[in-house]
Amino acid sequence: MIGQRQTLLDARDRVTGRIPYTINLEPPGTLHVAILRSTVPHARLVRVDASAASQLPGVAAVLTRDDFAGSSIRPLFGPVFRDQPIVAMDRVRYVGEPVAAVAATDLRAAEAALESIEVEYEELPAVFTPQDALAAGAPLLHESFDDRAPGYADIVLQGQGGNVCNKFQLRKGDGLAGFELADEIFEHEFSSPPVQHVSMEPHAAVASFEGDYLTVHTCTQTPYAVRDALAYMFRLPASHVRVVVPPVGGGFGGKTYAKVEPLAAVLSKMTHRPVKVHLTREEEFVTNRKHQAFIKLRTGMRRDGTIVAREVQALFNAGAYTDISPRLIKNGGYGAVGPYRISHVHIDSYAVFTNLPSAGAFRGYGVSQGSWAYESQMDMIAEAMGFDPIELRMRNLLLEGDTFATGETLHGIRFPEVLRDATTLFEAGRVPPPAEDDGSVKRGRGCAVIIKSTITPSTSAASVKLNSDGSLQVLTSTVDMGQGAHTALSQIAASALGVGVGSIGVVGPDTDVTPFDLTTSSSRSTAAMGAAVREAVFDVRRQLLDLAAQQMEVDVTDLELADGRISVVGDPASGRSIAEVVTASRRGTLAGNGSFVTEGGLHPETGQGIASEHWHQGAVAAEVDVDVATGKVTVRGLRASVYAGTVVNPINARMQIDGSVSFGISQALFEQLIHDEGHPANSSLSEYALAGLADLPEVFEVSLIEDPDNDEMHGLGETCLPPVMPAIANAVADAVGVRIRHLPLTAERVLDALEEQR
Amino acid sequence: MIGQRQTLLDARDRVTGRIPYTINLEPPGTLHVAILRSTVPHARLVRVDASAASQLPGVAAVLTRDDFAGSSIRPLFGPVFRDQPIVAMDRVRYVGEPVAAVAATDLRAAEAALESIEVEYEELPAVFTPQDALAAGAPLLHESFDDRAPGYADIVLQGQGGNVCNKFQLRKGDGLAGFELADEIFEHEFSSPPVQHVSMEPHAAVASFEGDYLTVHTCTQTPYAVRDALAYMFRLPASHVRVVVPPVGGGFGGKTYAKVEPLAAVLSKMTHRPVKVHLTREEEFVTNRKHQAFIKLRTGMRRDGTIVAREVQALFNAGAYTDISPRLIKNGGYGAVGPYRISHVHIDSYAVFTNLPSAGAFRGYGVSQGSWAYESQMDMIAEAMGFDPIELRMRNLLLEGDTFATGETLHGIRFPEVLRDATTLFEAGRVPPPAEDDGSVKRGRGCAVIIKSTITPSTSAASVKLNSDGSLQVLTSTVDMGQGAHTALSQIAASALGVGVGSIGVVGPDTDVTPFDLTTSSSRSTAAMGAAVREAVFDVRRQLLDLAAQQMEVDVTDLELADGRISVVGDPASGRSIAEVVTASRRGTLAGNGSFVTEGGLHPETGQGIASEHWHQGAVAAEVDVDVATGKVTVRGLRASVYAGTVVNPINARMQIDGSVSFGISQALFEQLIHDEGHPANSSLSEYALAGLADLPEVFEVSLIEDPDNDEMHGLGETCLPPVMPAIANAVADAVGVRIRHLPLTAERVLDALEEQR
C-alpha cells in the first residue's frame, strides 16, 4: 500500500459537498451568533450596554465583559500566554476585536441585535508596525501578562517589556565576532506583508453544554489544545470536554489553537443550548494571519564564496495578542540562517505587539519570511561577488553529518540533490519562450533552496480496533483538512496489517476517544502519526499472531501474516484469516496502541539544542517573464523539488507540492493585507488579490526525491512554499535587473523599480 | 466509589429533555420516512406500484421490493435467521408489516405520498395462536429459512417444519420416567398474553451514507449486532459501518437487534441524504413485543413435599419472523424449572410462527412466562397437599453447590435468604388493613421466588483513555437507556483508579471507537462491562505505576496509588499526582484495555451444559386487597428482594427494582395486546392499559442482599419482575380462593372467576 497511488478516500464527498463540515452542522435548537467588533484600533472601553439588545425578539443571550464578573469562567485564553479576551474586557486593541456577541434563534435576529448594543470608547494612541511599537514612548498594548499555558516551559518570558511579546536568540560560534573573518559583509533588509490563509471553510464551531459536559465540534487543527484551553477556561476535567473535528476545509495553520470555540462555549453555557459561531469572510481577515516581518540580514563572506558569519535581526508583527508568536519567532529566527554551513551565527528574533489583529501559524511558519531574506540576498551576494548563484549555494549547502546553527548534527540531508534537481528546469528547451515577444517581455531564471524544521519535541499517539471481520479502525487525532492525511494513514495501517485500504476506517479527531496528538501542522502527520499508527497496528498484529498460535497450537515464531491470512511459514494452506482468528478469540474486537515521541528543545540563551527531529528540504527553480511596459510578472516555468524519504501516496504528495507552490506564487505576486491606520482596507475576496489557476506556470514540475534504502517518511506539506517567493524575485532580478526586497512583487512595484532603475 | 449513592450523572438532562435522544437528531438535509403497512394478516403481494407516489412534491424516494431487484443489497435481516424483509417481498405475514416506505423532505409529504402507493393483496389463510399454527393443515408462514447469522452456531435448525420456528429441549435425570417416583402429579396450563415494552422513546434511527461509509445513530441496545447486520446487508467491511447510540429513552429488550435501522440505511443509500425513521406509538405496537406463551406444567411430588420430576411443554408465539425467539425459548424452557432441586426434568419449548407481529426480547426474557406457571402451581400444590407455600418452597429451593436442571453446579446461591427476606413483609403490622372495609374487600398474601440466567457465553470489552490532567475516559459499548449503566461504570472506573467520579467521562456506544460488547440486556452490564472496565483501568494503572517508577527512579513494587497520587509505600510525601506522571511521560494520553469473557452453552439434545455465568435470584411478597364486588385487585404492600452481590450504586439498584416491580404489577393486573383476527385492537396508549403510579403499593419495600465477603456484582435489572405476577395471583387466591391461570388479573377476569366460584 505504501507508495501506491491512492485517490483521496473522501475526494468525491469533498467535491460534491456531502461532507459534514462544521459549517453544515446544526443540532436542533441551535443558536446563531453575531459578533460586535471594535471600530477603533486602541481604546479604553468606557461602557458596553447590552440591556436593550438582550430584550429583542429571538435573542437568547448577549455576551459582554459584564458576564464574567463573579463568574468562574476564565475570560482570557491563548496557547502560550493567556492574554486574549473572549470579548474585550478593559480595552480594545485592534479594529475587529470582539466587544460583544449575540446568540439568537437565527442569524438575522442576532445581527439586528448588534445595532442595539451601546459601546463607548475612549481612544488611545495606537501603533501598527513593530518599529513604531518599539520606539521610545510608544503606547503599551499590555501592562503585563504571565498566565502561561502548560507545555510551554521552554518559552521564557524573555525580552518582554515595552511592546515586546517575546524574543528568541541564538549564538553560535563566535557570534558577531565571526564577522572579523569575513572578506566582504553584506547587509540588507527584507520585508514580508501580513497575508491571510483564505481557507475555503471559514472558522466555525458548534458548542453544546450538557450539564457540566461540554462538546464542541470545530474545524480546528489542534483538537487537544482546544480541549485543554476549554477545560481550563471552564474549570472542567479534560474528560468533560469533548472536541470533535469533522473534515476540515483547509487549515494552512490558520485553524491552530482556540479561535471561535471559547465564544461558542460561553454562549452555550449561558443559554443551555447548542451555539454555533460561523465567521464571515470579512471576519476571517481579522481572526488570524501570517506575521508581517522585517528581517535585517548581515552576511560575512570569504573571498572564496564561503559564508562565515550571519546576523539575523528579525521583527515579527504579532498583532494585539500573543497566540503562537513565541514559537514562531524561534522557527523564523533559526530558520533565517538557511540551509548553509555557517560557523558564526547571531540571531535576535522578536515578536512585537501592535494594534492589528493577532498573527499566528501560517503554512511555512516563519521560514517564508526568513528564506525570503536569505535566498534573495544569496543572489545579491552572488552577483556582487561574481559567482553563479547556484554554484555559490552548492559551495555552502549543508551536507550529511554537518552541524546546523542550533548545534545539532544533521542526518538525512539532501540539499545539493534537491537544488540540482530543481534547477534541471533550466535545461534548454524545457520552458517555451515568451509567446508574443515585442521586446517588452524579458525572461529570467531564479532558484531558492530552504531548510525547515518540524515541531520538536512532539508526541503523536494512535489506537486501532480490529473487528471480527478483519477490518480495522484507526483512531487518530490527526485532522484531515483536505491534505489527505486520513488516506495516507489508511495506507500505512493497511500496509502494516497486510490488508487492502478498503478494510480500513479512520476515525477522529475526537478527544474523547482518539489518543493525543500535538497538532496537525508542521508537515508532521504522515511522519509522526504514521509512525504511531504503524506501531499500533504492530501491537494488534502481535496479539493476533499470539492468538493464532494458541488456536493453531504452534509456536508464534513459526507464524507469518500476509494478505490477511496467518499461516505457518512455508505452509500457506495451514492458514486462517484474520477474521477467523479474531472471531475464535471470542474477544469481539482487539485493541492496539502506538505512539511516536520526539525529544528536543533549544537553550533559551544560546538557541543551541535539538530543533527538529528531521529537516524539511526543498528547492524551487522558476523561469519568469517580466513585461517591462506593465511590470507584470508571469511565472512561465517552475520546478519544485523536495526530499520526501518514502512517499506514501504519490497523488497526495504531488498535490501538497502543487498547493504549496500555488500559495508561494500568490504571495510572491499578489497577496498583502492592507491597513489604513489599523483599519483593514482589503478584507474581502473582491479586494484581496490571490493567485488563480491562470497564474500557475504552464510548465509546472514536481519532483519527490525518495530514498529507497530508508523507510523514514519526511513531511512535505509546506517545504516548497518558502522557496517560491525568492526564486521568483531572483528570476525577476535576472530578467530585468531590479531587486525587490519587499513582497509582493506586484506589477506596480516592479514597474516603480524599473522606473527607478532607468 | 463502589457502594456509594450516586445520583445518575445524566438525571437532570434526562428530566429536562436536554439529552440528544435519537428522536431529536436531525442533520441538515434529513429526509423523513412514512411507512405503508400491510392491512391484512397474510397475503401474497400481487402488486406494489409506487410510480405515482415517487413523483409527488417533496418525495425523494419510495422503497418497495422492486428496489432490491438487481441490487447488491440483501433485503432480509434477523439476528438468528435472516427471514425478515425490510419491506415485504413476496408476501405479507402480519397486519402492520412494512410494504413500502417513502422518504421525503418532511413527514407530512411522506405520509401524504403513502396514499398514492397502490398495493394489491391476494389474501391467504392466517393463524394467530401457536396451537392453531401447529394444527394439521395450518397455513405455512415460511417455506424454508436457513440463512443463519454468525454467532448462533449453537442454535440448530431443530424442530423446524410446519410453523415451528425453533425448539429447545432439555433432558435431565430420567426425564419423564422420573414421574414414576412421584406420589402425586400436578398438571396445569398457564398463559401469558403478548405485551408491549412501551418505552418512553419509540424506535428511531438516522442513517447517513457518505460514499461507502454508513453512519447510523439509533436507540438500539445492541450496537454491534446492528453494525454487523448492516455490514452484511450492504456487503461492507465492519470498519465502514458506524453505529452510534445516543442516550436511549428506555429499552426493556424492545430495542435489541436491527429494527428500523435497515430501512433508514437503504433509503439513505438510495437518496445520498441522511434519512430518519421515527416510529409512531401505534407503529411501536407492531414492531416488537413480549412472547405470548402457553405453558403446560406437570410436576411430580413426593408426599414429604419434595419435587421429584417436572415436565415443561412451552409454546411461545414468535409472530411472523424469527427475531431472537430461538434464544428466548431456551431461557423460557430451562427457566420454567424454577429455583428448585428437581432430579428429573423434561422440557420441550417451542417458538411457533403466527400471523402476528414478531415477538422479541422483553425484560424477564422468557422467565416471566415460566415463573408465572411454576410459582402459581407451587401455591396450588401447597394448597392441595396441605403445605405452607413458603415452607414448601424452602424445602425445595436450590442451595449453594446444588446442580441445576442444566447440569451445572451453582455458586453464589441465596434463594432461601432472598425468599425469607421478601416474606418479612408478612410480619404483623407492616401493611395497613383495607381502608374502607365494608366486607367486600378481602386481604390476601402471596409470594414467589425465581431464578434467571444471564446470557452466557458472552463478551464485553472496554478501553480507557487517561488524560494528562489525570481525568479518564471510559470507552464502552454499553448503552445507557436510563438504567444508569454509565453512572455505575463511572463509579467502577473511579474506584479502580482511586479518583472521584467527577474525573470520569463515559463515551459510547460508537462501534467505530468503543470496543465490542455483546448486548446491553440480560441484566449484564454492571457485572460484565463493569469487570471489563475494571480490567482496563488496572491496565492503565499498571502503566502509570511503571512510568512513575521510571520517573522517580524507584522499584515499581515500592509504589502505591491512592487518592489520585502515586507515592512510595509509607512515604506519602514522596508522591506525585497522576496528572504529573502522565504529563512527564510525554505520551499525552495513556490507553488501557480490558475484557470480560464468559464460557458456556447447552447441548442441543439434552440442554445440559453451562447456561449462566451467575444466576439472578429474586423473590417478591405481596399483600393485596380484592374487592369481591368489582373484582378489582389492589396491591397494598410489596417487598422485593434480590441477591445483588456487591451493590455499586444503591440509588440505581433500588430504581431498577422499582421499575421491575412496576412492570410486574402492570402485567399482573392490566397489560395485554388484543387482536381481532390479527388486527391490533388496542395499539394506542388510550386503549392499552398500563399501571400508573397510583397502582403502586403504598408499602413498597426493596431489599438488596449483599455479600460483604465477595465483590462480585450480580445483575438485577430484571430479577424482581417475574415473581411479581405469581406473587399477586397467589395473594388473590389467598384472599378470595380463586386461581387465575391466565394473565392479566383484570377486574373483569377476577369477577368472572368469583362468579364461577359461587
UniProtKB/TrEMBL annotation, chains A, B:
SMART domains per the UniProt record, alphabetical: Ald_Xan_dh_C
InterPro entries in UniProt: Ald_Oxase/Xan_DH_a/b, Ald_Oxase/Xan_DH_a/b_sf, Ald_Oxase/xanthine_DH-like, AldOxase/xan_DH_MoCoBD1, AldOxase/xan_DH_MoCoBD2, AldOxase/xan_DH_Mopterin-bd_sf
GO molecular function: iron ion binding; oxidoreductase activity
Residue ranges annotated for the Aldehyde oxidase/xanthine dehydrogenase a/b hammerhead domain, each copy included: 16-125
A Pfam family reported for this protein in Swiss-Prot or TrEMBL: MoCoBD_2
Annotated protein name in UniProt: CO/xanthine dehydrogenase Mo-binding subunit
Organism from which the protein derives: Blastococcus saxobsidens
